[in-house]
Amino acid sequence: MPPWEIWDNHSHLSGVSGRTPAERMAAMLKIADRMGIQRLCVFMGMDFVYDPSPERLRRENDQVLAAVRAWPERIFGYVYLNPKHRAASLQELDRCVRDGPMVGVKLWVAEHCNSADLDPIVERAAELKAPVLQHTYLKITGNLPGESTPMEMAELAARHPQAALICGHTGADWERGLRAIRPYPNVYADLCGSDPTAGFVEMAVAELGAERLLYGSDAGGRSFASQLAKVLGANIPDAAKKLILAGNLKRLLRPILQQKGISV
User: Fold this and answer.
1) pLDDT digits (tens, 9 = 90+) for 12-42
2) Of 99, 117, 55, which is closest to residue 80 (Cα–Cα)?
3) Strand 39-42 and strand 165-171: pairing?
4) N or C: less crowded end of the chain, CB within 10 Å?
5) C-alpha 59 chain-centroid distance
6) Is residue 205 within a helix (H) or strand (E), and if so which, with residue range?
7) What is the CATH number of domain 7-259?
8) Mean pLDDT calculated for residue range 140-149
């Protein structure tokens, strides 16, 4: 077990056994406990669709809310939104973050993140001090129709320097992804989602600095252990590992947690 505190920035209710959100979280936390992980950020429901309707968004967010309420001392929720449904997404943002316990925003593959449709969502999230985690990928086989790239994330970051943005998976093709977001200090690199290849975290520290990197697992789609291995096995100072495993996410979430009266 690592000697440092660990906060997981990226996990899901899918890919885990259990009939209810609480049962699935119980199963996931049992494994997290073995790995020494104290906190998990959870988003999206028990099953995924690429382009969710407003009704589907609300149902999936309700499932995450149920998980958060069952495990409030261990779980932070991010509200799942679809920029194609602007009004409904802004309503969900207020319902789940402003008026509820969630502390961040999750955007997936419904629409490219350089679209102007994201602007009202990102602006409102910044007002609420909620970070925005945008899935990004660079696939050899070609991205999904609405799937974003780190280059598109860079365009979004340039328009919203006041917002805290997280580049989900760092594009998976991390050498290109890291360089795309490097000029934008408001963008954090999410290290989860690709195989634990040597050199990823070392390059991320060299390109962005350890202060802009976040550990995540992508559980239950991937294992805690394989994603922790990227950080724990990296040839970087222990001080950098401590920042990546928990320190940076704690700093990123502290403003909104303080607003909600949560001390960490």
Assistant:
1) 999 999 999 999 999 999 999 999 999 999 9
2) 55
3) unpaired
4) N
5) 19
6) helix 200-208
7) 3.20.20.140
8) 96
